[in-house]
């Protein structure tokens, strides 16, 4: 390996949620922290060099994205997700969640239904409820811990919805929706004239040689989609607050862009812009090695649970560095389970109901960390389970 993903970097005191909020959120700070979705790896050297160069320039006025920005973003989404775009379709946002919230505000009215597929990333729920919209859910089907879409229910709910927020690939269940899934889903949204906000933030993290497809790459779905992409997960850049929103249809793009402009959210920060360019243009060798490392972590985790902790169940994630683990066989309620993990296994995981009621009895574990940490976490969990079950 050219890049060192084994190096353990002490993040405590850097002002990061993952470690510095442990005491506040979990009641103690001596935990192995595998909750919030960022990775414990240093960024790609190519991105670091680009940021260093920008820092050395030392003038940080208002930003204009130069043509190179549009070129590298266009190449990335075309090559990686099969979505061919034009520069003018890009709308700037400091993050994906600001854009998702603004889409809810722009395209729905208080009291309108907004549909999500649960269990799903908590801020999707909040983006609907915080603005007085009605949360509609299309719960995923689960068989042997493997999740799929309930299309009959989806169709019923789309009749009531004004907007659909899709998570592809899906956080937390790790599904990379197939082209077939996307075709069925996109056709139904078109039939019921429900625009799709497609959050594709995890689309670079795919395993076993698979490739993610943007919903907007299929049929004419781009006309009905607000596509959100970002290097934040795959290149570990969440703290640089940068995302790219791609909207082909002017009837959707113009009002969204106008709202973003009116709120002055489009300028971006100098480092975020440089980081996106460097990530998408100069760091694909780093990403390729990261994916090998993450896939090994994933396989290690799946094998470990099968071998050592057969009471706990999970389906092998096809995407994301997040494992969605079913703890129901331990027979504990969520609060008790969370407390037990903290006190007995010294682990900070994300509780399942954060992602919706369907998540009851589950925990989300982030394996985007050096193997040593993951090994320690799993050994600690094994000891705790063996002592008590
Ligand atoms: C599905 C999904 N969307 C969005 C985000 C956050 O994106 P941003 O920080 O750009 O708002 C996350 C972070 O975990 C996520 O998992």
The portion of residues forming beta strands comes to 5-15%
Order of helices and strands: HHEHHEHEHEEEHEHEEEHHHEHEEEH
Largest sheet: 7 strands, mixed
Under CATH, the topology of the largest domain can be stated as Aspartate Aminotransferase, domain 2
Spatial order of the strands forming the largest sheet: 2-10-9-8-7-3-4
Fraction of residues in H or I helices: 40-55%
Judging by the overall fold, what is the CATH architecture of the largest domain? Answer: 3-Layer(aba) Sandwich
Instruction: Report how far apart the termini are.
Output: 40 Å
The number of strands is 14
Structural class of the helix and strand makeup?
alpha/beta
Q: Which blocks of ≥5 consecutive residues have pLDDT under 50?
A: none
CATH class of the largest domain: Alpha Beta
User: How many domains in all?
Assistant: 2
Q: Assign the CATH superfamily of the largest domain.
A: Type I PLP-dependent aspartate aminotransferase-like (Major domain)
**Global outline:** globular
